[in-house]
From TrEMBL:
This is YitT family protein. Keywords: Membrane, Transmembrane, Transmembrane helix. It comes from Aeromicrobium camelliae. It comes from the Bacteria. The chain crosses the membrane at residues 5-23, 43-63, 70-91, 97-119, 154-175.
Amino acid sequence: MTGRLLRLLIGLWLYGATMAMMVRAGLGLNPWDVLHEGITHHVPVSFGVVTAVVGVLVLLAWIPLRQRPGVGTVLNVLVIGVAVDVTLAMLPEPGTLLPSAVLLAGGVVGNAFAGALYVSADLGPGPRDGLWVALVARTGRSVRVVRTCLELSVLALGWVLGGTVGIGTVAYALAVGPLAQRFLRSLRWSGSAPPVTAERAPGPLRAP
């Protein structure tokens, strides 16, 4: 259990740090981060605080859906927001396209690894992943339909609020799933992680 908790904490911190790298790159974010950034344009709080608050609000939506959180769910809300703000405070503005592209590439690859790392701990999905998992169970619709509708809605709302949509949004959508699957297979092969199947894994690791 101690090893799994450590894996979870490292994965969550890296996840927040790589989110910050994509934010600082300024070339586009994943749908939920587009929403988070959009909200920051309208309220006087940091990106990390918005990330945590949105996580709590999404958790409240679990109640009528009868989805149960795990320790990983709670730590997801607490750790990622702090990691984002700490990393943003440390990263300078890239200034030109090349440093931005490097930040984006590192953010996408690192985010995929971090996601695989914390998922492999198998201690509960994050709030946003748990939401669509619960919606699939309650509506009987396919994962593909529910996730697509949810993330397109989140992306549209974030864009309307002023969140950054760009090449990074497309790069994340195309690359993070395959990369995360590769990292997860490597973690499982090492024998140090509990078994996690594509059907059980949240986020980009879950099978369509």
